[in-house]
Amino acid sequence: MKKMMSQASCRNGLQVCLLLLMVGRLQGRVTAPERLEAPVEKPFTLMCSVLRERGESLKQVRWLDVQNQTLLSYLPGQRDSVSGQQHVELASSPKDSSAITIRRVGFRDEGCYTCIFDMIPSGSKQGQICLTVTAQVTVDSNKTAVSGKKASLSCSYGLPEKVQQIIWRHTSAQGDSSQVASFAKRSDPMIEPPYQGRVWLSASLSDSQLTIQPVAIQDEGCYTCLYTTLPAGQKSSTVCLATYVLPKPQVSYKTTSPGVIEANCTSVSRPPAEIVWNVERDNRTMGPPVTTQLPQGDGTTLVISTLTVQSGLLKDVSVKCLVHHKGLESPIAVSMNTKIGTALTILISVTTVAALLVMSLCFCLWKCFLRKEAD
Ligand SMILES: *[C@@H]1O[C@H](CO)[C@@H](O)[C@H](O)[C@H]1NC(C)=O
Ligand SMILES: *[C@@H]1O[C@H](CO)[C@@H](O)[C@H](O)[C@H]1NC(C)=O
Ligand SMILES: *[C@@H]1O[C@H](CO)[C@@H](O)[C@H](O)[C@H]1NC(C)=O
Ligand SMILES: *[C@@H]1O[C@H](CO)[C@@H](O)[C@H](O)[C@H]1NC(C)=O
What we know:
The protein is an alpha+beta fold. It is 18% helix and 46% strand. The strands form six sheets. Strands 2-10-9-4-5-6 form a six-stranded mixed sheet, with no helix packed on it. Helix 1 (2-12) crosses helix 2 (14-26). Bound molecules: 2-acetamido-2-deoxy-beta-D-glucopyranose (NAG) (4 copies). Residues 45-115, 121-242 form the Ig-like domain.
């Protein structure tokens, strides 16, 4: 910024340029950026340069930290002369300048740093750099949750020391926005009345976690976590949640005319399921399946796939309806044959039990009768 300004001024005229150089001289001949922003948890390099005049030599360079304590000092050209604190190191820099790297910037590194060039014979020249530590709000990537189960959304900010409070807001697909929960320093998490009992917020300013259990269809939408920080103001990030209702498909069928069976495979889900039959290409199906979608009032969709087949097909091959849904790892298969099979098994079992009962009754009666006769 400063450099750009001086370049612009230089273009305007040599006189202004000279004036600027003189001002620089009066300020002590050390150039350093006045203000810098350093992202937290990352290395950061600070650099100062000194204008050395003919006959002058640089004896020592010192850096002072935000508390004016020596951070690092060294004699130029002598690698083993470097001494200083653990969390900083000397970085390479052009001639007549000095650079140090803070290995991992933290909240405590915020403040003003001083670079001091001890010159012979003219004495010490110093410059100052003020560092502001910054952080980003990071949030999960978009999520899906199954209705009735649990959903957790998390959001974090690298500088909890600067945070006053965090607020979570929900915005529905229709655009309605409402506050869900908040947590402020030295207080308990607050859940707004409509969400009480099924929404929880962690008591943390750095890593905030919003938990919804059980998840409802109306919880779908985008959630914004809003950090109020000092002195930077508000910072936020948004994550979106989709809620799924998993299908529980069923097959029903009836004989519509002799030798012809109409089968329905039905599924209620969100988003709508895709239904296919495993025998669609068999020549004994009477045309392709007919699918209808009926949106239900609660946000789910009823899908009915109707397949008409010749009854002979059921005797020879297994007929299944396969329900595909985004929320399922593999499709759900519902077989028509097993239904017939089960019905038949039940019928046989019931008949057998009944026959046994009748037989034992007869045996009993016969025995009693025989005894009586013997008496
Ligand atoms: C460090 O020294 C400068 C003057 O050189 C002074 O303005 C500043 O307040 C000092 N800072 C601390 C933390 O002592
Ligand atoms: C998250 O979902 C929202 C809305 O569905 C979309 O606008 C946004 O691009 C998604 N973000 C990512 C990272 O996929
Ligand atoms: C299949 O669904 C349709 C409605 O889409 C209905 O009219 C028909 O009676 C159903 N058939 C069976 C066997 O359930
Ligand atoms: C159906 O296909 C089989 C062979 O896959 C064939 O033998 C049969 O005649 C066909 N039936 C009809 C009604 O086309």
